[in-house]
Design a protein that fits this description.
This protein has 15 helices and 13 strands. By secondary structure, it is an alpha/beta fold. The structure holds guanosine-5'-triphosphate and magnesium ion.
């Protein structure tokens, strides 16, 4: 494979910036751009040690003084010979060094190409490669923890025994189907059924982790809805911690949806503040109200804000009805700092609707005024047990492959119980293996792999 190079750190001025190089023969190329102060050529330096020296441009002029590290393959991230240059993090310096490497024969790495090479060289499986990008993109500490555990092989360790059991079944059936005349030990249907049952159970419990995995990785789509002036934008601002949306005492202040993210007790919320829902003749406001309804329909969690000063009115009915169709909803009485203590007791479950997950009062201005709301959110999206960390399915691709594997396992079970010929069981077991192979990358198709690595940034 040819030699690739890229700036691994972002494009902003930082204290330190890193340029990476990888590919067979890259050390000879590095000799041209790095002059160690210890007088030895870069290619002769001790592996995996930081070496102090000068970075040189294509004309041999010094562009920076910093550290370089040599990683001979296969003990490197990519599995091939590779190197890192730690310079001062000026974008100009980093670009100069990169140009010098290009002049010496390297080419610009594509997005995710370092990790792709690591995968192709067997350093990582696909679940680990995906964990790398999840770790880079993590927006909460628990998302980072999960990605780190997945990078350590958490998901792979969960899948391997299932794969091995299916492989065992497939190979036994294969022998029977392909070599009918050989004296091969008979298949014990009870053993096979038991193995298929176990695979089914394990895949089912893995699939049950999807919701938690998605919350961890993508956050909770949360719509804040209510009548005009109820205190929705004030709540958004209090949650995100700055004046994101305009707040006034004039009803109808928010006319369009306003989006931002907040981390509440380590749960990532993708918040949408909406225009107050009510009947209006104003064209602009009507369009805003339409958007509010759509935000509710698309939300995982709806927070209905009822003005604490007026309490729920008949006009809140439509909003409550809309919210009660969401996967989760919380009914919140706003402006609790202006209410007598215990006032929220009057908020009973609305008649004839699926009750909210929680009824509570809150204040967006009083210190600690969101505590009950934060408690409720943390309870709805619990952190999950530490033993699950790293073995959650966190995206659609993984969920789809695991569910295809489980369907095939169930078909194999049915075929066995229905007394179908061994080749029918074999076909299903192989299909299950194929789906699991896509998950870990053992048999993943080229286009799936390309799609995964496209999500990476350059230099990773
Ligand atoms: N005391 C007190 N006042 C609040 C609180 N929340 C909102 N308010 C006041 O209520 C008024 C309306 O607040 P907004 O947050 O703009 O209400 P909204 O629901 O976004 O209103 P629209 O955008 O018009 O639909 C403002 O005068 C706020 O200062 C609160 O918790 N306590
Ligand atoms: Mg508003």
């Amino acid at each position: 494979m040819d030699i690739i190079a890229a700036i691994a750190t972002g494009g902003n001025p930082t204290a330190i910036g890193i340029v990476r190089v990888s590919g067979e023969g890259c050390f000879a190329l590095c000799d041209k751009v790095f002059r160690a102060l210890n007088g030895k050529a870069f290619s002769a330096q001790e592996p995996r040690k930081m070496i102090y020296g000068d970075m040189l441009d294509a004309e041999g002029r010094v562009i920076d003084r910093g550290l370089a590290i040599r990683f001979p393959g296969p003990r490197s991230y990519t599995g091939e010979d590779s190197a890192e240059f730690h310079c001062h993090g000026s974008p100009v310096v980093l670009r100069e060094l990169l140009s010098a490497l290009f002049a010496a024969g390297a080419r610009q790495a594509k997005a995710g190409e370092f990790t792709r090479r690591a995968f192709l060289n067997g350093q990582l499986d696909l679940t680990q490669a995906e964990a790398v990008i999840d770790l880079i993109d993590a927006e909460t500490a628990s998302a980072a923890r999960n990605a780190a555990a997945q990078l350590d092989g958490g998901l792979r360790r969960m899948l391997e025994p299932i794969q091995d059991a299916l492989l065992e079944i497939a190979s036994r059936f294969y022998a029977v189907v392909d070599y009918p005349d050989e004296d091969i030990e008979d298949i014990q249907p009870e053993q096979v059924t038991e193995a298929l049952d176990t695979a089914d159970r394990q895949l089912t419990s893995l699939l049950a982790t999807c919701q938690r995995g998605k919350v961890l990785k993508s956050g909770v789509r949360t719509a804040i809805v209510g009548r005009p002036n109820a205190g929705k934008s004030s709540l958004l601002n209090a949650l995100v911690g700055y004046e994101r949306a305009i707040v006034t005492d004039i009803p109808g202040t928010t006319r369009d949806t306003v989006e931002d993210t907040a981390v509440v007790r380590d749960v990532l919320l993708r918040l949408v503040d909406t225009a107050g829902i009510h009947d209006t003749a104003d064209t602009v406001e009507r369009l805003g109200v339409e958007r509010s309804r759509r935000a509710v329909e698309q939300a995982d969690l709806v927070i209905v804000v009822v003005d604490g000063l007026t309490g729920p009115t008949e006009a809140d009915r439509e909003i409550l009805e809309l919210a009660s169709r969401a996967p989760h909803w919380i009914l919140g009485l706003s402006k609790s700092d202006l209410l007598p203590d215990g006032f929220c007791q009057i908020l009973k479950r609305p008649k004839g609707l699926r009750g909210p997950d929680e009824c509570l009062s809150f204040s967006s201005v009083a210190p600690g005024g969101l505590r009950l709301l934060e408690d409720a959110i943390a309870e709805l999206y619990p952190a999950g047990s530490p033993s699950q960390t790293g073995s959650l399915l966190t995206d659609q691709r993984q969920e789809e492959a695991a569910s295809r594997a489980r369907d095939a396992v169930r078909r194999a079970k049915a075929a066995l119980e229905g007394g179908l010929t061994p080749d029918a069981v074999l076909t299903d077991a192989e299909e299950a293996l194929e789906a699991l192979g896509e998950l870990t990358g053992r048999t993943a198709r080229e286009e799936i792999i390309s799609r995964i690595f496209e999500r990476f940034c350059v230099g990773k």
